[in-house]
Amino acid sequence: MGPDHPFYAHEVGLAAALVALDQRGDAAELFRPVAKAFERVLQEALSEAELVHSEPNMTLSSRVDVETGLTAMQTTNLVPGANVQELFRVCHDSALRTRWENQFMNGDKRVVDYKDFNGYVEGTDEIQMFKYPGMMFIKGREFLDRRVTHRDSARHLYVIVHSETTEVKGEKDPKFLRASTLFQCCACYAVPDGAAVFNCILADPKGSISAKVVNHQSRLQAIKWYHALLQAYKHFASPHATPIAPPFLAPA
Fold first, then answer.
1. Which residues have C-beta within 8 Å of that of residue 158, sequence separation ≥ 6?
2. Measuring CA to CA, which residue among 191, 222, 185, 248 is closest to residue 15?
3. Predicted local distance difference test score (pLDDT) of residue 248
4. Are 181 and 162 in contact (CB under 8 A)?
């Protein structure tokens, strides 16, 4: 099965699909603003992470980052019966994603868009501030990220890479502490019975929260996110969207 087959990412693994994407070079220029983060995503995807949680259609693995002491999380989230383009839309549309994450995860996340920077392309190269409110005596956290999106509809692979940015400063809010996204990847790809989302992230919340607490909460949130995703697809995906047709199961 060659890298142009629509189920390549499923059959050989998302890591191999990302490496093939990198080797083709068609996304090199696109990911240039987040090149370091994309390189780290490749390293993490190829690494031997420890499986820390599994359930039907979902796995969560982690690996400690030696520089920060924080844990990089990897999740594979299968949505049975999903159409990969619709799953990508549910994950990529910032307004929609914020809506369903808040609805199904009982959150109050907010997103601020910045368009006045060199390289802005709506839906492809964006800068966004993600604001998460605090609790009790813990300040909220805000992440100012550059978000670059690669779409490959022929191969049924969609890759979103985040990294912290200094391209814009963003308004400071005394209720929030500026945190850091070292790297984040959200990749949607087709599988024979639906579609899947691979998430890989390492973020530093800064401040005085211990690494142990951060790592524990990150694991819990990853599990909650998968169940919220299932609900989101059920509620917000087009009822007319169907998985890739069985003829694509033939070898390339």
1. 84, 85, 88, 92, 149, 150, 151, 152, 187, 188, 189
2. 185
3. 40
4. yes
Distances (CA, A) of 59 to 74, 111, 206, 214: 8, 28, 27, 19
Residues 12-56 pLDDT 10s: 567 778 888 888 887 888 999 999 999 999 999 888 899 999 999
Q: Is 186 in contact with 195 (CB distance < 8 Å)? A: no
pTM of this structure? 0.91
